C-alpha cells in the first residue's frame, strides 16, 4: 500500500494523473519514469525528496543522519544539534554544491517540519517521557522515507558526511553531560527531576551512534569518547539490551586500538 501511495503521489505531482475525468495516461512517460525509480518505492521516495523546496529537502536529509525513524528530540534540540553539525559549512562558508544552513531559529526549523508533515514526509507524534509530559516530537512517515533521505545524504563527499556525523556526535556528547536549557520545564518525581535523566540518555545514545560512524576523523580526547561508549553500554544493560551493550563496548575498544 505504501508503495502504491508513493507512486500515486509522484504521478499526481508530475501531472500525469489528475482528478479530472478528461485526464489521459502517458504510458511512455510512465515507463521512462519507472527506469529512474529502478522499479521500486525506493527510487520514488528519493526522487520526491530530491525535488522538495530547498529548506525541506535540507532538513529531511539532515535529520536522516540521526538514523532514527522516531526522532527523540524536540525542534529546539534538532536546531541545536544541526546548527553545530553544519557550523563548518554554515552561513558565510557555503561550499560548492552545498546548501548553507537555512534556519535562523528553532521556530523556523519547526515551521519547515510542519511543511514536511503537510507534504506527507514526517508526522507529529506525542512523546510521553512521563505522565506529565505532552511534549510534541516528530517522526518520519515511514522507515523508507528515512532511508531514502539518508541515501541522498550519502551522496555528499565522504569527508563532508563524516564531518556532519562528528558534529552531531560532539554536540550531543556535550548536551549529555551538562544541564541543557535552564528555562525548560522540569517534572518532579519523588522529589527529583526525572525528565533530565531520560533526556540526557537520549543525547548519550545519539552521541555514541554518531561518533561510532565518524570515529576515523575524531579529534577529541579518545579516552573520553571510549568512556562515552562504556557509559552508553551500561545504559543498554540497564534496559536489558545486551546485544546493543556489546556493540558499544566493541566500538569503545576499537577506538582505543
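^ Assign residues to that structure.
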Amino acid at each position: 500500500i505504501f508503495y502504491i501511495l508513493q507512486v500515486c503521489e509522484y504521478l499526481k505531482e508530475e501531472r500525469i494523473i489528475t482528478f479530472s475525468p478528461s485526464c489521459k495516461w502517458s504510458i511512455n512517460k510512465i515507463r521512462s519514469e519507472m527506469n529512474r525509480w529502478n522499479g521500486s518505492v525506493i527510487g520514488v521516495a528519493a526522487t520526491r525528496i530530491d525535488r522538495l523546496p530547498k529548506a525541506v529537502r535540507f532538513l529531511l536529509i539532515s535529520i536522516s543522519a540521526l538514523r532514527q525513524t522516531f526522532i527523540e528530540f524536540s525542534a529546539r534540540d534538532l536546531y541545536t544539534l544541526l546548527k553545530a553539525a553544519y557550523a563548518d559549512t554554515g552561513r558565510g562558508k557555503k561550499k560548492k554544491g552545498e546548501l548553507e544552513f537555512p534556519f535562523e531559529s528553532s521556530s523556523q526549523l519547526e515551521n519547515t517540519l510542519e511543511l514536511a508533515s503537510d507534504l506527507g514526509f514526517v508526522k507529529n507524534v506525542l512523546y510521553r517521557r512521563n505522565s506529565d509530559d505532552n511534549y510534541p516530537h516528530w517522526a518520519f512517515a515511514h522507515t523508507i522515507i528515512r532511508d531514502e533521505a539518508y541515501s541522498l545524504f550519502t551522496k555528499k563527499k565522504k569527508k563532508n558526511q563524516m564531518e556532519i556525523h562528528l558534529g552531531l556526535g560532539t554536540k550531543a556528547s556535550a548536551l549529555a553531560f551538562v544541564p541543557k536549557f535552564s528555562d525548560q520545564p522540569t517534572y518532579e518525581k519523588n522529589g527529583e527531576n526525572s525528565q533530565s535523566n531520560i533526556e540526557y540518555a537520549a543525547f548519550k545514545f545519539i552521541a555514541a551512534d554518531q561518533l561510532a560512524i565518524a570515529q576515523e576523523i575524531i579529534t577529541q580526547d579518545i579516552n573520553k569518547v571510549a568512556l562515552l561508549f562504556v557509559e552508553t553500554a551500561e545504559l543498554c544493560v540497564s534496559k536489558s539490551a545486551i546485544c546493543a551493550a556489546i556493540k558499544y563496548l566493541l566500538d569503545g575498544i576499537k577506538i582505543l586500538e
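Residues 180-195 have pLDDT under 50 and may be disordered.
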